[in-house]
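Would you kindly consider the sequence and fold I have copied below?
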Amino acid sequence: MTIVDRTEQMVRFARPILWNTDDPESPYSVGGTANIVKLLDEYFILTARHCLDKEAEGLSISDCCIPWRFGDMTSDTIFCHIGEGINFTIKEDEGPFNGVHVDLCIHRLLGPSDSAPALEEGGYLELHPYMEPKINDQILLTGFPKSQQAIDDGARAIKAICTTLQGHIEATRDSYIHKFVSPDLRGLDANGMSGGLITSNFLGNLLLQGLCVQGGRNLEIDFIHFIDGNHLHSMIREAFKALKERLEGSEASG
């Protein structure tokens, strides 16, 4: 099912989302996929909004643990220092996607939570101007299905299993939402793929084509909905501008 080896450079932008539980016997819960992206020499965390917005569950962004580096996690793992973010909700209880979480968030990545080397090339996805995939491009979905993450509570360790599937894109009647279709989604509990990125492999370079909005538990379907790349790039640019203006405003007032 994993068609790209989890150690390959090309999908090392993806990270599992963990939460501190304050339970010494079970210190972490896991769910959702985050991604480190780079735009104009700045780094951001890109994911679905409902993956990080857990206020209703009594959790804040300070409880969230996103690994600084791709790979298995131990008690010594360094996490991301997550900065201010911008949220988007595209659909809410309307139309054909009623009940589907169609949202995203973009947070500034301030650096590692502790001393750690800078991210190497391949440890993030560099964003380029949007370009539609070509007919022969390889289309990929990368994420961390919750059912495949093995947590060793005693050792405070997690064997993070990153899954990358190959498929194709099918348009829907909605201008924002399309389907990523793959036979490998059948039989996969995709809960946890929310926030995962759809990319196209263009001459060995990955280009952002969308963001998965909801990973379902229906094992009979072979598709997953995602926000299409054109709209996603527009929202990223909007968030980048807003975050830059907020930063400049706080520096001016300080």
About this structure: The longest strand covers residues 28-39. DSSP finds two helices and 15 strands in the chain. Residues 1-7 have pLDDT under 50 and may be disordered. The helical segments are 49-52, 229-253.
